Amino acid sequence: MGVLASAAVSAADGLQEPWKNFTEDLQHVGERMQARLPERLRDDPQVQLEAGTLILQAMAREVLEVLGADESHPVFLPSLGAVMNIFQPNADTVYLNANVDDHGTYRLRGQSGSVRIIKMAQFRALTDEVAFEEGPSSFQALSYNDFNDLSIDDQGRFDVLLSRKRPQGYSGDWWELQPGTGFLMIRQMSSDWANERDWRVAIERMDIGVQRDRPGAEELEARLSRLSRRIGDVALSLVTHVEDMRKAGYLNRLRIMHTPGSLEGQFYYEGAYEINASEALVVEARVPEDCVYWSAILTNDIYQTIDWMNNQSSLNDAQAHVDTDGVVRFVLSLDDPGVHNWLDPAGHASGAFQGRWTGCSSTLIPGVTKVALADLDDFLPADTVRVTPAERETAIRERRMHFQMRPLW
Q1: Least CB-packed of 4, 146, 197, 270 within 10 Å?
Q2: Which domains does the chain possess?
Q3: Global pTM value
Q4: Confidence band (pLDDT; 50, 70, 90) for 15?
């Protein structure tokens, strides 16, 4: 009886100790976030609670990885998006991650779609020593693979092998797995959410058995032990980004954006914005003659993309209207000015404006003009497309439906 009791206590300690360490470490994440928030925002109770939500979103992402990521039995898991709103996701992009072993052999197959851009980046493995607090500079893309380069059969199916070396005698589609790769990220970018179809992709490892053994106790404990640190590092990584732009003089001005994890062939520009209820920002640029994709999005002060499913906080080449002079003009204001190209900050009087030119013949930095809201009609061209409140509501409801129809999970 004594032996059984002792074993029961030991088993209980086996759960309690790592769980206790996890919950204790997690308590410090809020303290780290409070200390890292820009001084301008630190005492704002609204921002404090939004920062708390950001921590929860980082937790959702990292918990999902702990539960589902397995380099021996991989699956593409949601990485960023409307719910896991970290690292400032693009409203038009579905992000999926799968962990891999850079010595493994993997097979990717599935059904092709019609989105204009679907690329897979091979990223360097992240380690416990990586410090996200300095920004996601550790996201080093080692190479990119374009699904549109694959052979597609008459039923729309594809099949590609991913490995260090092409197997001898193998004549099918093959991608080289780069040394140091720790995870794969698929980006699918859609402009026309209603009509473009996303690809469906499955992955499996071929150089080991297909069945998965019960994970060992050491592995399970290791996953839990690193979770709280990763949650904090991910949540804190970009909370000063908007403030840094303000301090650098890019308030209601735009600059070229450089980021290590950016999509191949994509040019980014961005800047901080600030307006009051009587003002509007007009952001305008001549649309390149040739362009695969372009868009503009808004973020809040801690660099989360403003809710784009329930608000028109983003517009792309299929959604925005280009004026007859070849210029696209976005209007950023707190209240709806009845302009088709309104970007809705959803009550955020300050934040960031970001744009993308992808595969374009030119890459301009748009101009930004602050105008009184009362003078907006005089500033915009006469042929500016207008919308009524009823038309806006219909457009947002359609937007919401079509976004949900994409394979987000």
Answers
A1: 4
A2: 1-68+221-237 (no CATH), 69-207 (2.60.120), 241-404 (2.60.120.1600)
A3: 0.94
A4: confident
